């Protein structure tokens, strides 16, 4: 087999391996969770853990995240699967929050599980990608469900919850920095409940809204109407002062939502209002049964102006503020519809909220005002969205593809280079040890015609050609910038560009061409020097 055929065969094999590798990396992950999960935002990643599927079974050890540092369409979600590193048993209705010295560790507390070995607290470090069961000093190791954890200065407040048919109203305080348990005041504490809404306000108070004290609650998963049991009123809300460790009650007015539980709450971008969404309720309430706003300047409820396609109500979902959006994840009520696992509500304009399918991370989140400021006199204007990137613009997928393709390309280049060197050495041996000697044992210069344009390696499937001529081959590289310094490479990626497998192939072939060209140049120079030396010796004899 000629050297060209061998190199051609090796190139074809490696390119097929790289194509399979990239296709495997781009296989989308489809979660099976429907409700009862946790959603924790840490450094531009929304981590989803636990929950139940459409048949109310535990989803297993599903653990995944959504990269929110890049634009996306809710109809084309690219979930990144981390289930293979998850050590938490299957569970639902736990509480999650971030904490630790740098506020970048995921904490998971409580939850309902059939696995009796499940610990009360787990932590996940996104930097090392590891789960641990921390040792926490203190008095509590009870696995409650229906809790909402609220973090203030590294201390997480876990109030109430459901435990073995008992509804509680105690306040547990977890110090996520020093890893110890404490307790909050029970003076003027609200009645026992779970499945409530809880949000930290700019004045260091935590507001608690609604919930239920029924252990046998049942509701229609489509309409969200309560069939059995009851929910608690939203005509009053409760404030816990994290600084002074005391409770107070505020009466509300306006279009008070009907009694409800299993909903979500977030703080508006201006720090002056609380937005609630979804939940199961006793009666239909007012015009909009899923979205209400509580004005914190006067504790008045109202239904905001909304545009866009209004989604169906959801229960046991989660919401997070990410940029200018209220991001709703999963929940009962959407699994049998055409709605996405993720809902986006643009809340940057208090005069009109907009349901959208496009997430644009380029618009920064407006900074919150001072604690409970006076009503805002102006609304921030809505910014236009950047063009939506296709699913392959996901940064993590790009990096994974780049690394995998790069490693394969390196092996390809090294193997091909050694094969070429072996063939080159055989050619040198034929030239040096051939029959080109005179009777005196001196080498007779041989006329050589290096027709480099004729030595071409054909790549299968219409790939680019490698030529050993001296004319430069320019390969467009709009995304990748590489400086070849004998194996040292610099790769730069952008959120607005996609890495192409074709570019990687062309880059590797270009590198091989450069190596081959350089070796041939050296061989030519060596031959020229030998011929000059022979000529000088011949001239010396003639003189």
Strand content: 25-35%
Find the CATH topology of the largest domain. Neuraminidase
Instruction: Kindly provide the name of the CATH class of the largest domain.
Output: Mainly Beta
Shape: elongated
Amino- and carboxy-terminal Cα gap: 50 Å
Explain what you see.
The protein is 19% helix and 26% strand. The protein is α+β, with helices and mostly antiparallel strands. The protein has a five-stranded mixed β-sheet with strand order 20-26-25-23-22, with no helix packed on it. A five-stranded mixed β-sheet has the order 27-31-30-29-28, with no helix packed on it. A four-stranded antiparallel β-sheet has the order 1-2-3-5. Helix 2 (395-432) packs parallel to helix 3. The chain is elongated and about 120 Å long. The chain starts with a helix and ends with a helix. Mean pLDDT is 76; it is low at 19-25, 373-399 and 428-500. Keywords: Kelch repeat, Membrane, Repeat, Signal, Transmembrane, Transmembrane helix. The chain crosses the membrane at residues 397-420. Residues 363-391 are annotated as: Disordered. Residues 1-19 form the signal peptide.
Key features?
543 residues, elongated, 2 domains, 5-stranded mixed beta sheet, alpha+beta
SSE blueprint and pairings:
Elements: H1 3-25, E1 38-42, E2 45-49, E3 63-67, E4 72-73, E5 79-81, E6 95-99, E7 105-109, E8 121-125, E9 130-132, E10 149-152, E11 155-163, E12 166-175, E13 180-183, E14 197-200, E15 205-209, E16 218-219, E17 226-228, E18 236-241, E19 246-251, E20 253-254, E21 260-261, E22 264-267, E23 273-277, E24 280-281, E25 291-295, E26 300-302, E27 306-307, E28 318-322, E29 325-329, E30 342-346, E31 353-356, E32 358-359, H2 395-432, E33 456-457, E34 466-467, H3 501-542
Parallel strand pairs: 20-26, 27-31
Antiparallel strand pairs: 1-2, 2-3, 3-5, 4-32, 6-7, 7-8, 8-9, 10-11, 11-12, 12-13, 14-15, 15-18, 16-17, 18-19, 21-24, 22-23, 23-25, 25-26, 28-29, 29-30, 30-31, 33-34
Helix pairs in contact: 1-2, 2-3
Region (Disordered): 363-391
Protein name: Galactose oxidase
Transmembrane segments: 397-420
């Amino acid at each position: 087999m000629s050297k060209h055929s061998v190199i051609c065969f090796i190139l074809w094999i490696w390119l097929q391996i790289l194509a399979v590798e990239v296709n495997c990396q781009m296989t989308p992950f489809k979660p099976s969770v429907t409700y009862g999960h946790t959603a924790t935002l840490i450094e531009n990643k929304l981590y989803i853990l636990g929950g139940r599927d459409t048949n109310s079974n535990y989803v297993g050890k599903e653990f995944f995240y959504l990269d929110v540092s890049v634009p996306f369409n809710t109809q084309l979600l690219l979930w990144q699967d981390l289930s293979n590193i998850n050590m938490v048993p299957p569970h639902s209705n736990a509480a999650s929050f971030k904490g630790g010295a740098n506020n970048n560790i995921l904490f998971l507390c409580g939850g309902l599980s059939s696995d009796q070995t499940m610990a009360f607290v787990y932590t996940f470090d996104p930097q090392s990608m590891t789960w641990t069961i921390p040792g926490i000093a203190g008095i509590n190791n009870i696995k409650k469900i229906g809790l909402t954890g609220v973090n203030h200065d590294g201390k997480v407040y876990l109030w109430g919850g459901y435990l073995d048919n008992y509804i509680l109203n105690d306040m547990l305080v977890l110090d996520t920095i020093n890893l110890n348990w404490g307790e909050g005041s029970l003076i003027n504490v609200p009645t026992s409940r779970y499945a409530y809404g809880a949000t930290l306000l700019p004045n260091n108070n935590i507001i608690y809204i609604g919930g239920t004290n029924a252990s046998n609650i049942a509701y229609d998963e489509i309409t969200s109407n309560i069939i059995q049991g009851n929910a608690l009123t939203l005509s009053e809300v409760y404030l816990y002062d994290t600084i002074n460790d005391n409770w107070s009650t505020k009466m509300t007015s306006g279009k008070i939502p009907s009694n409800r539980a299993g909903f979500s709450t977030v703080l508006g971008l201006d720090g002056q209002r609380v937005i609630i969404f979804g939940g199961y309720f006793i009666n239909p309430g007012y015009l909009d049964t899923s979205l209400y706003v509580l004005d914190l300047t006067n504790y008045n409820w109202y239904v905001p102006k909304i545009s866009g396609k209004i989604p169906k109500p959801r229960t046991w979902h989660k919401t997070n503020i990410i940029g200018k959006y209220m991001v709703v994840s999963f929940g009962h009520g959407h699994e049998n519809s055409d709605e996405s696992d993720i809902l986006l509500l643009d809340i940057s304009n208090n005069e009109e909220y907009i349901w959208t399918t496009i997430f644009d991370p380029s618009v920064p989140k407006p900074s919150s005002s001072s604690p409970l400021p006076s009503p805002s006199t102006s609304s921030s204007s809505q910014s236009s969205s950047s063009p939506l990137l296709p699913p392959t613009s996901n940064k993590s997928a790009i990096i994974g593809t780049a690394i995998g393709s790069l490693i394969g390309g390196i092996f390809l280049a090294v193997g091909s280079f050694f094969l070429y060197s072996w063939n080159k050495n055989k050619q040198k041996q034929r030239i040096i040890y051939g029959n080109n000697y005179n009777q005196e044992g001196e080498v007779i210069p041989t006329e050589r015609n290096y027709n480099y344009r004729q030595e071409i390696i054909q790549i299968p499937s219409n790939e680019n050609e490698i030529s050993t001529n001296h004319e430069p081959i320019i390969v467009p590289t709009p995304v990748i910038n590489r400086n070849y310094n004998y194996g040292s490479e610099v790769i730069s990626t952008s959120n607005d560009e996609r890495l192409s497998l074709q570019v990687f192939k062309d880059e590797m072939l270009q590198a091989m061409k450069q190596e081959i060209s350089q070796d041939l140049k050296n061989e030519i120079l060596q031959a020229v020097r030998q011929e000059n030396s022979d000529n000088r010796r011949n001239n010396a004899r003639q003189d």
